[in-house]
């Protein structure tokens, strides 16, 4: 895996923070999505116009996704699931404009997976209590404690490696196609971009979000 070189470094006393291109792209995406969300949700009307109709369609799609897969009692997770889906999808689509997908950076995929892992555990503790949460690690019998711990820890590893691995593999294949075609690579790779960037990028987002939702529900109800 090629090491990602920092664009610049922020120095805070003895702490040095390297800012890579993946971090910059994420900041840009966050700012643009925040502005778009603010503009799209301002001046809402009882009779929606086209802009509001699109926003409501997106919201209803995410709400239905959460409701159908997790149940009405988990509707409070709509903002997180929606934000996660939109953020990952946009990052996966950035190669379409010639920008390396931040999700090709393992640290980005691992960061997203860690956030989901923490939310899964926090929600379980909140729903069943700290005592029952730790007791679940010893079920159905105490000797399974190590296996149950490993099973929980597999989630962030699986989420991050799946997202990172598939996006990186697609980028490698596209790089080989461009390298092999030389000057003829301006039109022929379009179908490959449609598959690896649009289709596979969408699938990886769906898989990440669905696994996150399922684990939020299953761990809390275990």
UniProtKB/TrEMBL annotation:
UniProt xrefs under Pfam families: ATP-synt_A (PF00119)
Subcellular location: Cell membrane
Annotated InterPro entries: ATP_syn_F0_a_bact/chloroplast, ATP_synth_F0_asu, ATP_synth_F0_asu_AS
Keywords from the named record: ATP synthesis, Cell membrane, CF(0), Hydrogen ion transport, Ion transport, Membrane, Transmembrane, Transmembrane helix, Transport
Transmembrane segments: 7-37, 77-99, 106-125, 171-196, 202-220
GO molecular function annotation: proton-transporting ATP synthase activity, rotational mechanism
Membrane topology: Multi-pass membrane protein
A cellular-component GO term for this protein: proton-transporting ATP synthase complex
Domain of life assignment: Bacteria
Family to which this protein belongs: Belongs to the ATPase A chain family.
Described purpose of this protein according to its UniProt entry: Key component of the proton channel; it plays a direct role in the translocation of protons across the membrane.
Alphabetical list of HAMAP family matching this protein: ATP_synth_a_bact
Protein name as it appears in the record: ATP synthase subunit a
Organism field: Clostridium thailandense
